[in-house]
């Protein structure tokens, strides 16, 4: 029998988790042969709601779901986990930028980093979703340096999915015609949805969509501002699409990438494309099914370089704000 995968989900009674957990337990991420043990982590006021979610999971009678642990205790919650999906945190409201959440959310990720280093399985991989996700990931990782850099990710996949859909709709083609869409930098309004390298039906997107102004004036701002547009329309931040992006992110790490495509993930910079080492930066990445690598050697035209510099500087500024959450303090 296949060994069960043990997955911790923080914020397990929240909106994103409510769209995620049922798909995880159904096998959408690790496949129909892999049993799953869920470690559902919440804060005390949400434990009653979490009991309700767990009852619903029970009531689905998922054959793959072997065990559930419901806890507020990080040592218990992260014990032996192979994956940690760090979602639990406060979402922004209309009028806020994600970075405005650093004060309230940043402190969550320091003890979580420590507990992961002390209790998780030796092969643990961590995906940070709670915003601002790149810098929250930095806080967790800096407090858990025992976990190798290549096992940490922050989520930019929702931006990539948004970008692919915008391109497919504008070109009037099926989604799987759209390939090699990169998201550079921060999961914020400075992110760079990259149309320069995107391909549609095997050709450069800029050849297929013969409307140069559309890319800068519509495509980039639409993707950068999509989260805010959803908050305005729904009165709450994106949840089902975020959960879907969590599933896509994990799958893109554990499965080899398609030969003619790449994925979007925030990873720890090793200095690629001149990004300072240690920052969590959205890059185009490829996986061999075990390990994720940044796609290197892409030409970076000047307008793209200028935009990458803006999002890089924002991440440097965010890092400067969280000094007291780093381990030397
Ligand atoms: N990276 C991305 O692409 C996206 C990130 N997000 C972010 O994901 C986060 C969660 O969003 P939602 O699920 O909609 O929020 P939500 O408010 O519905 O749920 C958050 C849950 O986290 C729990 N929580 C708070 N502090 C916690 C802690 N210290 N430990 C464990 N659980 C804790 C809360 O009790 C709540 O149940 C937000 O920060 C949001 O901005 C949302 C969409 C996309
Ligand atoms: O915009 C937000 O606050 C939630 C989020 O990260 C997204 O939808 O991309």
Overall description:
InterPro entries: L-lactate/malate_DH (IPR001557), Lactate/malate_DH_C (IPR022383), Lactate/malate_DH_N (IPR001236), Lactate_DH/Glyco_Ohase_4_C (IPR015955), Malate_DH_AS (IPR001252), Malate_DH_type2 (IPR010945), NAD(P)-bd_dom_sf (IPR036291). NAD(+) binds at residues 11-17, 105, 112, 129-131. By secondary structure, this protein is α/β, with parallel strands linked by helices. The chain has 2 domains: 5-154, NAD(P)-binding Rossmann-like Domain (Rossmann fold), CATH 3.40.50; 157-319, L-2-Hydroxyisocaproate Dehydrogenase, Chain A, domain 2, CATH 3.90.110. Helices cover 40% and strands 18% of the residues. It contains 11 helices and 14 strands. The strands form 4 sheets. It has a 6-stranded parallel sheet with strand order 3-2-1-4-5-6. A 3-stranded antiparallel sheet has the order 7-10-11. A hairpin with a 2-residue loop joins strand 10 (199-200) and strand 11. The radius of gyration is 19 Å and the shape is globular. It starts with a strand and ends in an 8-residue tail after the last helix. The model has no long low-confidence stretch (mean pLDDT 97). The structure holds 1,4-dihydronicotinamide adenine dinucleotide and oxaloacetate ion (OAA).
């Amino acid at each position: 029998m296949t060994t069960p995968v043990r997955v911790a989900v923080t914020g397990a009674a929240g909106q994103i988790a409510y769209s995620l957990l049922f798909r995880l337990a159904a096998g959408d991420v690790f496949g129909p042969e892999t049993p799953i043990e869920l470690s559902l982590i919440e804060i005390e006021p949400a434990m009653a709601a979490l009991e309700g979610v767990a009852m619903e999971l029970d009531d689905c009678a998922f054959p793959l779901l072997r065990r559930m642990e419901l806890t507020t205790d990080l040592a218990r919650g992260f014990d032996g986990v192979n994956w940690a999906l760090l979602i639990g945190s406060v979402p922004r409201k209309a009028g806020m930028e994600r970075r405005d959440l650093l004060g309230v959310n940043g402190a969550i990720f320091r003890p979580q980093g420590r507990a992961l280093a002390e209790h998780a399985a030796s092969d643990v991989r961590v995906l940070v979703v709670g915003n601002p996700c790149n810098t929250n990931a930095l806080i967790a990782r800096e407090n858990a340096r025992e976990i190798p850099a290549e096992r940490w990710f922050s989520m930019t996949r929702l931006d990539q999915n948004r970008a692919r859909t915008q391109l497919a709709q504008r070109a009037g083609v099926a989604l799987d015609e759209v390939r090699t869409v990169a998201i550079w930098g921060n999961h914020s309004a400075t992110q760079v949805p990259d149309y320069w390298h995107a391909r549609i039906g095997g050709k450069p997107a800029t050849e297929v969509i013969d409307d140069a102004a559309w890319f800068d004036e519509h495509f980039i701002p639409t993707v950068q501002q999509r989260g805010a547009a959803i908050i305005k329309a729904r009165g709450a931040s994106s949840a089902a699409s975020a959960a879907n992006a969590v599933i896509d992110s994990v799958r893109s790490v554990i499965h080899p990438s398609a030969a003619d495509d790449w994925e979007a993930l925030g990873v720890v910079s090793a200095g690629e494309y001149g990004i300072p080492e240690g920052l969590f930066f959205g890059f185009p990445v490829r996986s061999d099914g075990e390990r994720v690598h940044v796609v290197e050697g892409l030409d970076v035209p000047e307008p793209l370089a200028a935009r990458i510099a803006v999002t890089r500087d924002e991440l440097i500024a965010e890092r400067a704000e969280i000094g007291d959450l780093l381990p030397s303090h």
